[in-house]
Amino acid sequence: xxxxxxxxxxxxxxxxxxxxxxxxxxxxxxxxxxxxxxxxxxxxxxxxxxxxxxxxxxxxxxxxxxxxxxxxxxxxxxxxxxxxxxxxxxxxxxxxxxxxxxxxxxxxxxxxxxxxxxxxxxxxxxxxxxxxxxxxxxxxxxxxxxxxxxxxxxxxxxxxxxxxxxxxxxxxxxxxxxxxxxxxxxxxxxxxxxxxxxxxxxxxxxxxxxxxxxxxxxxxxxxxxxxxxxxxxxxxxxxxxxxxxxxxxxxxxxxxxxxxxxxxxxxxxxxxxxxxxxxxxxxxxxxxxxxxxxxxxxx
Length: 299
Fold this sequence. Notes:
Layout: H1 3-16, H2 21-40, H3 52-64, H4 69-88, H5 115-123, H6 130-145, H7 149-153, E1 160-161, E2 166-170, E3 176-180, H8 183-196, H9 221-235, H10 243-256, H11 261-268, H12 284-294
Antiparallel strand pairs: 1-2, 2-3
Helix pairs in contact: 1-2, 2-4, 5-9, 6-8, 6-10, 10-11
């Protein structure tokens, strides 16, 4: 019975809202869950007959299925979008989602490391071992460039433009961005690349991978977690530290220093602060000057 409404909603999302296919599918899944619930509860109501109480009962049902608060919020967002469409198409005269509340999500901010704490962690690396030189290059690069752990392990030699102080990063959704890299990170990458990695035999398919494990393969994300965990233990730092802590600290230090938020977002590979800034492309030299002025490692 709801299929005709779903079809219309799909067209609305694609044509009027110009949403990507995966976003459209996510919204449709939310409405599928609602229609499944109505079927289970033997309700034959169409969207125009649904009241707030039924939607609240649906959210309660979803909660009892064990869905997380973020999943519930996602579903409510989908239902609210559906009823915006219903109002536009005069399928319903009133919006039953107007008072439908999303669960309160607890947002815990990750710990931030001070520049001194990052220095202390990196100082625990044993540079007498080959993996020490590699690990130093990894951590210096992660903090200098604010990289995600996945971006770090996937970094290619062909993406390094160290002579001009930039690296090309492939981020989420295969989006590329150019990020300035500090002289300290450049120094340790060159030591690793020219004095340590050169003696390794990369496994097939890993010739261009920058950071290799002792078997000549790309490092795993878990390995980076373990390396950092051990260094933090040695440094005696009690904060919860993960690879993401270096990225979060990179951004926090820049923002606290007064850096332009758009520049920071560009370097992190995030969507812009507002929709009007999504297509803002900042001059590369401006990014470099922002880092040199505000990032401790560049001073």
